[in-house]
Design a protein that fits this description.
Length: 369
């Protein structure tokens, strides 16, 4: 089956999700992106892309593309004889016209957050926009995939046909994100290492992690803040001259694994997640994880597989970090339980099979409808 996935390019959990999915579908999938300056076809990492250039973005969340982009993408869909279109949220300015007048079945995955923990006005505005966009996309889509099972009831309460709503969780590449040797602590000259990886923006709340880490009194510990985003300059300024905090930037998967496999602890202090892909990846590496109460954190980290914070208090996070670093045997056992859980429940083999079967059902329904 020839499928086009509308996604970001090499940025954030959405891209990771789509890249892992595409690599496991039986036919080569075309990834259509719109968040970079690139244009035209490209092949790399075993994937095939068509890039629509970005003129500018709104908070690096919604991307404005050149006039005529819709016409160009439709031409690309015809050239590749695409049988199904899969949008991963309302990402690009060309997306709306694409799904409203699609000649092939449309599936939408809602990767965005509904439990956003910003101030009340911002949260209400955000939720209002998301509700409007989701209802609009669902009107034209054959299926709406929730990666968080709790969202299915919310979408139904918004008036979306429950028959369209399907829960399929994020997958974790537990073969790649797995325990293994690493020399990163020798390179960083530290005895213990804490890692965060992901987008550096307001939603991710990395400033709370940096503030908490600066209060850690254990000697020989470093914090690696991995990723890129609009908050990077602010976070570097917050870290100041504290040489224990390093910013490696955006890393390739192999470079990221060097940090993840060599770390002692992963922290995700986010204000909101639809699922929490980084949590699952860290668990796959056998790391103990401290997370805010977002997305699927309680399900993933329950039964002593990790630690879920009660709020955004810096003192609480400092306390949890110090406890796990001072009790390595307990931390390692927690990490082992975490890995066993994601291997059993969230392997990409299971998830990709569910998605492929959904695609086949949508094409079949469209053909007989």
């Amino acid at each position: 089956m020839r499928v086009a996935e509308i996604t970001t390019y090499k940025e954030g959990g959405v891209y990771t999700h789509v890249a892992k999915l595409a690599s496991r579908l039986p036919d080569q999938t075309l990834l259509i992106t719109g968040n970079s300056k690139k244009s035209g076809y490209e092949e790399g990492d075993g994937l095939r892309f068509f890039h629509v250039p970005c003129l500018f973005s709104l908070q690096e969340i919604y991307f404005i593309n050149p006039p005529g982009s819709v016409r160009k993408v439709r031409q690309v869909l015809r050239e590749n004889d695409i049988q199904l279109l899969h949008l991963h949220g309302p990402l690009f300015s060309f997306g709306g016209a694409l799904y409203r007048k699609s000649s092939v079945p449309v599936v939408v995955t809602t990767h965005y957050v509904l439990d956003f923990k910003g101030n009340r006005f911002a949260a209400a505005l955000y939720t209002g926009v998301i509700r409007w966009m989701t209802r609009r996309m669902a009107r034209y889509a054959q299926r709406v995939i929730c990666v968080n099972k709790d969202y299915a009831k919310v979408y139904a309460s918004w008036g979306i046909d429950p028959k369209k709503i399907v829960y399929i969780p994020n997958g974790i590449d537990t073969e790649t994100f797995s325990p293994g040797p690493s020399d990163i602590k020798q390179s960083l000259d530290c005895q213990q290492l804490i890692v965060y990886w992901g987008r550096l923006g307001y939603q991710k709340n990395v400033s709370t992690l940096i503030q908490a880490f600066k209060n850690v009194t254990i000697p020989g510990v470093k914090l690696a803040v991995i990723g890129k985003g609009p908050d990077l300059p602010k976070l570097q300024a917050l870290a100041g001259t504290d040489g224990r905090i390093v910013f490696p930037g955006y890393l390739t998967e192999n470079e990221l694994l060097r940090y993840a496999r060599g770390a002692d602890l992963a922290v995700l202090p986010s204000r909101g997640e639809s699922w929490g892909l980084v949590i699952g990846e860290a668990m796959g590496c056998g790391l103990p994880v401290i997370s805010s109460d977002v997305g699927m954190a309680r399900e993933l980290l329950g039964d002593d597989r990790g630690v879920v914070l009660n709020g955004e208090a810096v003192d609480e996070l400092t306390q949890k970090i110090e406890y796990l670093l001072r009790h390595p045997a307990e931390s390692q056992a927690m990490g082992a339980r975490a890995r066993a859980f994601v291997v059993d429940r969230y392997s990409w083999t299971q998830v990709a099979t569910q998605v492929r079967m959904l695609y086949e059902a949508c094409v079949s329904e469209r053909g007989t409808g």
